[in-house]
Write a structure and sequence with these properties.
This protein is mainly β and 127 residues long. It has a single domain, classed as Porin. The protein contains no helices and 9 strands. Strands 1, 2, 3, 4, 5, 6, 7, 8 and 9 form a 9-stranded antiparallel beta sheet that branches. The relative contact order is 0.20. This is Outer membrane protein beta-barrel domain-containing protein.
């Protein structure tokens, strides 16, 4: 007989700032590594702007976790994204819920420009 230990969880998120919002579906590969497929909301089909990000939790505590990531944004914004954030877990009985603050520097390749954007958000990990 073979025995395998596996770990995987799905998450959903919503991020916003003063000009944009985005929704995300994520997949946790293990305790520290997770990916997000993010889509900017409020865009029409021509401006469909997905963002694919792989994140790593480098500090994980009972009440918060900090992460850094890398990914790509395509179409309306074409570039490389490097999110850095903190997920705060303020409720003892809701450890799957976090309020996130994220700084997302983006190198926009079409314009050769660096965009610095900040987002606040909410994230929930499903079992």
């Amino acid at each position: 007989m073979f025995s395998f230990n596996s770990y995987s969880q799905i998450s959903t998120s919503f991020y916003l700032n003063d000009t944009n919002s985005k929704i995300a579906i994520g997949y946790e590969f293990n305790e520290n590594l997770w990916g997000d497929f993010r889509m900017y909301s409020g865009t029409n089909i021509e401006n469909f702007t997905p963002e694919i990000v792989l994140n790593y939790n480098f500090i994980k505590r009972a009440l918060y976790e900090t992460y850094i990531g890398a990914g790509l944004s395509l179409n309306n914004i074409n570039g490389i994204v490097l999110p850095v954030g903190i997920g705060i877990k303020p409720f003892e009985n809701l450890k799957k819920l976090s309020f996130n603050i994220e700084l997302t520097p983006t190198y926009e390749t079409d314009l050769s420009d660096l965009l610095i954007r900040g987002f606040i958000g909410i994230r929930y990990v499903l079992k």
